[in-house]
Amino acid sequence: MTLGIAILGAGRIGQTHARAISATPGARLVAISDPFAEAAQKVSDAYGCDIRSIDDIAASDDVDAVAICTPTDTHADLIEQFAKAGKKIFCEKPVDLSAARVKQAIATVEAEGATLMVGFNRRFDPDFMAVKAAIDNGSVGDVEMVTITSRDPGAPPPAYIKVSGGIFRDMTIHDFDMARWLLGEEVQTVVAQASNLVDPEIGKLGDYDSVNVILRTASGKQAVITNSRRASYGYDQRIEVHGSKGMAQAQNTLEANVVVATADGISTPPLMNFFMTRYTAAYANEIAAFVTAVNSGQPTPTTGLDGLKALELADAALEAAQTGKAVTLA
Amino acid sequence: MTLGIAILGAGRIGQTHARAISATPGARLVAISDPFAEAAQKVSDAYGCDIRSIDDIAASDDVDAVAICTPTDTHADLIEQFAKAGKKIFCEKPVDLSAARVKQAIATVEAEGATLMVGFNRRFDPDFMAVKAAIDNGSVGDVEMVTITSRDPGAPPPAYIKVSGGIFRDMTIHDFDMARWLLGEEVQTVVAQASNLVDPEIGKLGDYDSVNVILRTASGKQAVITNSRRASYGYDQRIEVHGSKGMAQAQNTLEANVVVATADGISTPPLMNFFMTRYTAAYANEIAAFVTAVNSGQPTPTTGLDGLKALELADAALEAAQTGKAVTLA
Amino acid sequence: MTLGIAILGAGRIGQTHARAISATPGARLVAISDPFAEAAQKVSDAYGCDIRSIDDIAASDDVDAVAICTPTDTHADLIEQFAKAGKKIFCEKPVDLSAARVKQAIATVEAEGATLMVGFNRRFDPDFMAVKAAIDNGSVGDVEMVTITSRDPGAPPPAYIKVSGGIFRDMTIHDFDMARWLLGEEVQTVVAQASNLVDPEIGKLGDYDSVNVILRTASGKQAVITNSRRASYGYDQRIEVHGSKGMAQAQNTLEANVVVATADGISTPPLMNFFMTRYTAAYANEIAAFVTAVNSGQPTPTTGLDGLKALELADAALEAAQTGKAVTLA
Amino acid sequence: MTLGIAILGAGRIGQTHARAISATPGARLVAISDPFAEAAQKVSDAYGCDIRSIDDIAASDDVDAVAICTPTDTHADLIEQFAKAGKKIFCEKPVDLSAARVKQAIATVEAEGATLMVGFNRRFDPDFMAVKAAIDNGSVGDVEMVTITSRDPGAPPPAYIKVSGGIFRDMTIHDFDMARWLLGEEVQTVVAQASNLVDPEIGKLGDYDSVNVILRTASGKQAVITNSRRASYGYDQRIEVHGSKGMAQAQNTLEANVVVATADGISTPPLMNFFMTRYTAAYANEIAAFVTAVNSGQPTPTTGLDGLKALELADAALEAAQTGKAVTLA
User: Fold this and answer.
1) Is the CA virtual torsion B201, B205, B206, B212 positive or negative?
2) Each residue of B84-134: pLDDT tens digit?
3) Per residue in A13-36, pLDDT tens?
4) Residue C79 belongs to what domain range?
5) ipTM score of the complex?
6) Which of A134, A252, A257 sits opposite B127 (nearest CB)?
7) Is A19 among the domain residues?
8) Is residue D211 a part of any domain in this protein?
9) Rounded to an integer, what distance in angstroms lies between the CA atom of residue C270 and that of residue A140?
């Protein structure tokens, strides 16, 4: 079958998904919706799809699924609207900044028997998938320790910080999901330290820009997450899994795989600098996985529960950083 | 404007170009042609284009350009047919295995005022482009020595060897073009050694599978090319340029950028194993460059003359390998 | 001048220092002392020095300095004895497992106007020195975050664990010293998590084998330390410093700098597997720095206070791991 | 037994061997000889050996072996003098610049039943030894192609060029020996190209500074050697062996194994810049191998014949470069 998909939101992530859907066998981009007519038109022109309102999309017979790419504070409402409309749902992370609201949305999804996949794109990065494969095929043995380094090329503007939910819910949330995925066991204990070193404006807004978190499971497995809102050398995204038999590492992605050696030393280009460039393949794979799961009637590889668990870890890390005390999850 | 393109030949390289054309802004895949109906149908289904005969394509008003992806021995005839039909022409390398026939085709192209770009895809590989940029921006100073390593994962079957024109015209021809592009000066002298080490069947057919070539320009710049029809570890494609100020290297491309460390050692995945996977970006960039050049009325980045020069170097290298004497080009 | 040095303890670290002293210009190995006659004889034969008792060494006019390489529980006594004897003192870490006893020994050293250097060999590793240089020359800007990965190839036997003082005082203590050295600011807050994943015997003895620690200074700089008593792939020793302008990393040291590529993948040899091999250059540089400092009348690069500070961090990390609460240092 | 060794020549290579001999178990540095009293004194002071004349050394009962580190034009005479004196002989490469004189010296060595090892230090480099081990243990299968890159950091002064015998006999000679060692089969055919690109003064003296050579054995195995008298980024020394099962590479040696990443890119320090630093371990291993062979009565790992074979390849490459014709060795 060919899955008819509509995209809600024609911003940069919506555009990325439009391209990915157009290139995915078994999927067809049916419609785009955005309050800004110009943005919607641009996607329509590029990929030959209709422009429709959100309510029209909910009522469209040729739309089997939606990709929610709107601002975070609309995600939960839209999930509930489209769950009730009987559409398969792909939603960008986070579902909501409030764990209570996320639980409510998940309850609605379950009550309607709907399908919800949350966009944790990093699980679909080829390099991170190769690390996961090294766990799954036994190369590293039993997982003992996970190390995740994630540094943004630069801090977002204060306007974004204000609505972001803070670094743990906005940035570290990806790493919490990766940690759960790689540890293979739920986290029980969280300790954290958080500083404001990059941009004083971030501190004035009550947020942090430099954090370290240790997660620990009931059996004693641990994950360390290092985040900074600054990395002059590009978008620093590394993962390391250490197990009883060995270690698997995903290394950074350079702009080009070249070396220039002169009297000044030996150098490579910087890291890819932008998350949408760095994770181009991950975004494409993520949409393909959604399409494959829906078309085959299988569960989606991520769910609303994954979104909830990551958010709960973010809330716990914030509390741990603020109190200096280990926070235990239920 | 949007360039209407038809593809002649629905084999694997034709399919690659079909995908690239579909994804290129400013271009539209209008038609596919192939004597095997099934192959043409597959491309038509995947990218929504017509199926037409070659003569229909030559007569089609909605076709502005063709991509010739048919067997080598048809290239020159098709170039001449479409030059006369007033179509812009992209042709896979080589133009022909006979330098005389190539010259004739080029003469026809010139007489008709036609446009011919020859598919030396490696010039469009992002890593090799970064090496070229290191030359052009002065990082390596004046180019002195170029080293090109090119090893295929495995030898082609005897049936292919028979029609290939031999290793120098079939495989090394890419490296001759790269050497010309990187040296920035025409080659004057060629010495070579050629052996049969990989597959005795290749030797029985009078061809070689393991060759080394030294090229030298009038000013004394040198390029070394190392070719083998065997590389168990993947498709080995490296370039190194050494100049008065330093060196630039393009390194190999791994299947994934991960490291697994165990008691057995520290390992990465093999190299990408197939030329169409390894050069995915190069093929896309190549088509985009053709479309951009034609749409803007600029010269194409490669021409029939580049095809001729590379073939003349192949002929010279074969003679040098067979006689043990340096061959001087006119 | 030539510094006459005696070594107390002819075990493996004593032997390492014997070799380093023999090769250091400006130093001469005068005597070795060890209760095991055979061990002392071996060093005497290899490097042509006398065998003397500890008391004889203390009374020897031709001995200007001693290197204390005896078991940990004798260090403080020997430091005091040789401080009173007017000898310059190099002592292996740790000074003692009790912070109170360390303070007492330091007090004696100060009262006698003696010289005490504590053997934090990693400060003298060429790669770590290059990282420190990248801080000192401004390349990384203001230090913000430090990441230290230190994994032993295998767990020591239970007999050693019993007298080791536990993983924080025995193994992490090196990393605490590195963190202080690289942060350039004293640590104020410590959080930690500790598990027993490698060897259940270690857990039965009340110790851990897998720990993560976050250190934080008053200005918010942070260091993360990851330790494991297991690394099948060799002795894993990496340091990364992230600052306002960039990052500096010291990478691991392979047994040989070679790559073997086959159909099974691309591999290098494992990491150097033994701390004395991995840190050969560091041990030599450390002794040379002691000799240079003493001969020139300059302060030694490390002191008893460095030993005390590292031990206090170890005590704090242990408390933090056991209580789940951040520990604040005075 | 302990081998008493005297060094003839207290220049930089003599000093290197003095240090290596002093550190080698089973060897003792007995004497140094040099017409410049100051140079001899320096070695004597540093390592506590006698200063003697060459004739005294030849007559000394406590000297079992000599290391000849004098200027090239004295090597053959000294080899013959010490062969007749019954001393074991280690001689720096080359034995002589004339193949005829080398043959004569070898004849004398054989007539006297003497032992002669020629200093091809690169065979003893740990990385190159690991490549050789990958051949010997079957990892790369049957050797098919060898690639040797050797670039000096800078050109020597004209005064040295004049007495050097030219680039093939002075610089490439090391690579000829490596090629023979790695190919495992004698070379039959040589082609070469040589240019003057680095320093016009070298060209005025009739020598070259940029050369490429292809060597071929009777069975068709090939080796490529690339040499330049210029490498701004350090002493570029790489080896690659390609066989039926895979490839082994020895990579370059950095001054420190660190990476610094900033907005300008990601860089490492340059390569080690000086052959005596780059090959420190090789020089030590070479002397140890000489001592072990002599003390155990085994053949030395290299002989006068190796020196002769490398020189004959140098002569052939020069002829091939000058005539443009393949030169066949007897």
Assistant:
1) negative
2) 999 999 999 999 999 999 999 999 999 999 999 999 999 999 999 999 999
3) 999 999 888 878 788 899 999 999
4) 3-114
5) 0.94
6) A257
7) yes
8) yes
9) 15
